[in-house]
Amino acid sequence: MNVSDNIRAVRTKKGLSQAEMARRYGTSPEFYHRLEKKDKTLTLEQVEKIADALGVTVAELLDIALEPKIDALRVEQLEKENLRQLEEIKSNQKKIEEYEGRLLDKDLIIKYTRKEIATVENLFKANIAYIYDNIKHDQHVGTLYYTNANGDEKYIAYNSLSKEEADKLFDFDNIEVVLNEDEEKYIIDEMFNNPKYAELVAFLVSSGFIDDEKILQAYKAKYPNFSSSLSFAYHNHLMLSGRKIVEIMSKND
Question: N or C: lower Cβ tally within 10 Å for the chain?
């Protein structure tokens, strides 16, 4: 809309005819009609006189003329802002998807690592148990308790039997080796002092996976300056320790 269009809009809104406007303006109806028909370029003086005739200020009349353009500009700015926000949302959504993917990968890595650590932990505990039992049976430590074919309970000092005699007794399914406190301590001390097992036992216990309190106390007494609480980096090293276990066990066979 131009100024002439706004003049006509304001006049119509105020209920004024062109004849009345011509009278207020001080001109003929024909001339005024040409003003609203845009047949004549309006001068500032003409705009001022028309504003007076309409009872509005020139600024108000010009504001009316600019208002649709301002509204259109605001709409355009809003559209641009909306597009910018939409792009920002899309970008953030993409980042969220990337972060979710990373978290999923992280969860899988953590799950896999925990599984691997659990495997190593079970392996280490199994080896400690194997060494403990190996010393017990190799050196005939403890007392054998079993029930014979007649249902009689029997207790026999393990070290009183030869290997062949002990092997025959172990044909009984319900036989077990009973250890007293001193015998347990002897086996644990032997684990750390016997060259056949000491290196492997120290390595296994240093992993932090062994939770037997008596074995841990013996380890701390043997190695007072070495902590069994390891860094994650060392735990990663332990993931490859199966090869070392096999290597040490091969030397002992």
Answer: C
